[in-house]
C-alpha cells in the first residue's frame, strides 16, 4: 500500500516521463537537421516549441517536488522492468514499472504535446 497521494504520485511520474520525452524530441531534432527535407523549419519550430513547453512544465514539477520534499531516482533496470525509488516526506517506496508501459506513456505524452501545440 502506497502512502503517496495520487496527485503527488502523478507529479513524481511526470519527473520520470518528461525527461524521456525531451530526449526523444532531441533525437528527432537531430534527425530532421540531417535529413533531406526541403522545408525543415516547420518541423524544427514545432519540435522546439514543444520542447520549450515540456521544459517549462518539468521546471514546475521540479519546483513542486523540492517544495514538498519529493524525490525520485532509478534504482535498477532490466529487460522488462525499471524500479524507481520514491522518497515522500521521509518515506521510501519502491515502484516497479513495466518498460513497455513506460514507452507507451512517453508516446502518449509526446502525442499530447505535439497535437496541442500543432493546432
TrEMBL record:
Highest taxon of source: Bacteria
Protein name as it appears in the record: YhjD
Organism: Bacillus yapensis
Organism taxonomic ancestry: Bacteria, Bacillati, Bacillota, Bacilli, Bacillales
